[in-house]
Write a structure and sequence with these properties.
The complex is a heterodimer. Chain A is mainly beta. Helices cover 0% and strands 51% of the residues of chain A. In chain A, the strands form 2 sheets. In chain A, strands 2, 4, 5, 6, 9, 10 and 11 form a 7-stranded mixed beta sheet that branches. In chain B, strands 2, 4, 5, 9, 10 and 11 form a 6-stranded mixed beta sheet that branches. Classes of the chains: A mainly beta, B mainly beta.
Chain lengths: 116, 109
């Protein structure tokens, strides 16, 4: 399967700062990337879907001005959590699809964000 | 609306067999996935069913009945390392994954 990396794997920041998380597809071109958030003991929650070169599509209830997504190339998508607050502390996971409409998603290892 | 149901938690004994059920109601169907997720890690792919029947892969098997909106994941010869959450996800008419809340499987010696 496809190899997906995320950086950083964990980050601790102060309230009010911005944090950027990178998601890279290492061995293929990802036409579509997904960003998920997972709170402890809960399932994955899709935040947004991004296609290379176009604006991300955000799920209902996700603030697009707070969670900035940039999918500038076929191998890189970034999620920036702006003015992070303790309630934003979560596990952020990206996944990719290699071909539009193909089913399987390949997941990155996740980024653990802790906002103090 | 779209809905995926699976038990919240199950407990089984090492060496035994366990079946984790998943029922779904979605707008369209383009396949059902099972993922395994260990605590603090991202999900890893286990199986994919798009046609009715049983798919076997080593100790893990997955079954699908589209007419019943039902799937199960069967784990045989349970090992302690199988302790994890098991996520059922359905690909809808737009090829978007609809996720269940996951089943936490606890394996006891």
């Amino acid at each position: 399967g496809a190899v997906v990396s995320q950086h950083p794997s964990w980050v601790i920041c102060k309230s009010g700062t911005s944090v950027k998380i990178e998601c890279r597809s290492l061995d293929f071109q990802a036409t579509t990337m997904f960003w998920y958030r997972q709170f402890p003991k809960q399932s994955l929650m899709l935040m947004a879907t991004s296609n290379e070169g176009s604006k991300a599509t955000y799920e209902q209830g996700v603030e697009k001005d707070k969670f900035l997504i940039n999918h500038a190339s076929l191998t890189l998508s970034t999620l920036t959590v702006t003015s992070a607050h303790p309630e934003d502390s979560s596990f952020y996971i990206c996944s990719v699809k290699t071909i539009p409409d193909y089913n399987e998603q390949f997941f990155g290892p996740g980024t653990r964000l802790t906002v103090l | 609306g779209q809905n995926i149901d699976q038990p919240t938690e199950m407990t089984a004994t090492e060496g035994a067999i366990v079946q984790i059920n998943c029922t779904y109601q979605t707008s369209g169907f383009n396949g059902l996935f099972w993922y395994q997720q260990h605590a603090g890690e991202a999900p890893t792919f286990l199986s994919y069913n798009v046609l009715d029947g049983l798919e076997e892969k080593g100790r893990f098997s997955s079954f699908l009945s589209r007419s019943k909106g039902y799937s199960y994941l069967l784990l045989k010869e349970l090992q302690m390392k199988d302790s994890a959450s098991y996520l059922c996800a359905v690909s809808d008419s737009n090829y978007q994954l609809i996720w269940g809340a996951g089943t936490k499987l606890i394996i006891k010696p």
